Structure formats: C-alpha cells, structure tokens
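tool_call: predict_structure(chain=1)
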Amino acid sequence: MNEFRASFHPGQMAIHMSEARFKICAAGRRFGKSHYAALELIIAALMTENRFGYKLGIEAGVYYVAPTFDQAKRIMWPKIRELAGYERTGGLIRNENVNDGWIELVSGRRIYIRGADNPDSLRGIALSYVVLDEYADMKENVWSEIVEPALMDYEGEALFIGTPKGKNHFYKLFMKALQYIRGDEETYPMYEAFHFKSGDNPFLKKHELKRMMESDTSSRETIRQEIEADFVSGGGNLLRPTDFKIVSGLPHAGRQGRFFITCDLAGFVKDRRGKVMRTDESVICVTWVEDMSADWYVVDMIHGRWDARETALRIVKAAARYHGCRLGIEKGITMNAVLPYMEDYMREFNRYITVEGLKHGGVNKYSRIEWALQGRSQRGKIKLVEGEWNEWFLDQCADFPDRLAHDDGVDALAYLDQMATAVFADYEEDVPEWQPLDLDAGY
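tool_result:
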C-alpha cells in the first residue's frame, strides 16, 4: 500500500494527538479546519483496525458531513483529491463516484461525502469515523438521532469542527466536552474540547488577519465569533439603536451619490378557516449612498399591510419620486405577485425602471442582516434622516434577532448590501431601458 504522510500545524496536531473518542473544536475562520478534517478522513479510511480492536473492512464507513451536500462536495472533494492523489500516479485514490458521493482508497474503504440537509442519506451504514463540519449550522438531531447511533457497531469516533454561531447546540456540546471528567471505568476519555483562534494558524498572513480585524464592516461581535471563535450570544444586542445617528437631511448637494430602493414584501399564511392573512408588513426602504465615504443615509421607510396592487403602486410612486434610483425586490412568490401590477402602473405613469431581484445567497436571514448592518452601524456609517418611521425602525433594531419580533424594516435595509457600491458612474446615463415582460411569451 502506498505511504501517506500527514502534516499538521501545532493546533491541528493537538487535536490529532487527543485520545478522546469525540473531539469538539471551535475554531476561527482560516484556522485550517477543512485541511485538517481531510487529513483525518484519509487516515481513518486507511485503517484496517481501530484502537478498540474492531476489524475495519469495506463495510465500515467514514463520513464527512457538512450542512448541505453541495457545500460538502465543494469543500471536501477537491481537498481529498489534493492530499490523497490518484493510485495511478502513486496516490491513494482507487475509485470515486461524484453522483453518489464517495471516494474509495487503496485500502478498499470509502470516504462518503454527505449533507445534513438530506438526513436519509446519512442512514444505513455502520460508521467507524465521522466529521461533522460546521455543526452549528445543522439540526441538533442529525447527531443524536442519526449519526451517533451509526457509530455503535465499531465504537466509532467523531470530530465536530466549526465556527460558533451563538449559544446553540454546538455551544452546548462544546461546554459538555469542556466540563467532561473522565470516569474510572473508561479506557479512553469520551469528550475533549478545543478552542483555536484564526491567528493560531501559523500559515495565515498576519497582515490579512489585521485587515479583517480593522475592517469597517466587521463588528466587534463578528470579530469575536468569526476570528476569535467565541460563542457570542444573540439576544437583542446585535443592532443597538444608539448606534444609528438621526440627521436632519442629506449632505450638501455637491456630494455625489445615488438613491436605492430595497423592498421586503410580506408573506402570507392561512388561518384556521383557510383565509389568507399577511404575516407582517411590507417595507419600501429608500436609502442614499455616498460615493466616497460609503455612508448610508436612510431617507424613508414606507411600511404597511397592503395587497399586491397597492404594494405595486407604492413601489412605483417611490421609484418615480427618487428619479435615477436602483430598485431591488426580494425574489419569490410575492415579487412575482406585484410585478404585473407594477408594469401597469409604469405604463400609466410613463416612468420605467428595471427591477433587480434580490436573494439570500444561501445565507440565513439573521446572519445576512447581522453581516450587512451590525459593523456599519457600530462605526456610525448608517444615518437615519429624521422622520416618523425612525422610532418604528429603531424598535426593530432593539428586538433583533428575537424571532417573535418583527424585523421587516432591518431586513429591507440589509438588502442594500447586495446593491450599494462605493463608487458610482453618472447614473443618469447608465440607467438601462426598462423592458416589460410578456407574461404569455415569457420574455
């Protein structure tokens, strides 16, 4: 069998040398989590017997589990290929199947690439080793109900590794490992907790780490969580109302900028009688952004519970009022509902504007809002033009991220992060000509 040499930096070596059966590691971004996980997966798949005396044949599975299957393939597939290499070139990979998600090594054993978004794909195989990457982004029962029972046949081992996401089930598991006391009857310790900052990776460029620490869009909480790997609690202190300065108006006219309109449209639910009800308010957020300092001046937040026709009318009126603006609306069923009415009103008013579809980009809403607004607000880069809506918006900031409170205002403003840029061309010449959509033809 071909020889495999694994190279660890000191932090990775500390985890590797631990005798614990279940290792829980909270690590900052760029610590080298994926690289380390790939090395451990390869080592585990090359073993023919584990330390508990179990013979490990081809039926003893080795799993890498990420929050989604696409994410798992994107992260781990190229990493294992890079580190293991193919048998025909002196490496360790004998065969692979991208569609089924497995890589077979020269030992005859397979590394399975899986996503926690498809729990059924995790069942049916007895496991000798598993890596759960970014466990904080998975449902808690993925471990307790599916993966942990699959380790029983071989007394299999597990590595939990990821960046904290508040005090959730990953935090509880980390604290359980941190407080663990080995019993007298245990041959090996069951749990061990590890904590590493991004800077514990000796190969990470120090100037890049410093740049991240000093970035205008990186809040103190973001740095603590993403770089220092601290379990920062959520609970209503992410967007402090005192960080938003209220101003009397926009800067003097000589400064160049542009208006943006970002819309968060209300969804619908059915009550017990089957009647369709709106769950929250629709929000039309108007913001002016400077070209040099990139300050955001929130000019207005038009909000209310409207039907699709009235929502369309209010959006078109706002776009007509702020000439030359860019208009973005969250993609989805509600956007599709208002677009036909908007086309009617644009023809009626003879004022056309291109609608840009905004999307989450695979990021959950709370993380997206935190990323877009927290750092900017703490550095005084979001200013609210005085208006009746100020108190309504600041109340939502104070409550965020309480899932029982409304956040449609902060959500609408956060979408600006997808659209605003620091430098603008002469927008009067750059606004593309609006083209109506033929609903029958589809173009």
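agent: Residues 269-278, 422-434, 438-443 have pLDDT under 50 and may be disordered. Proceeding to next step.
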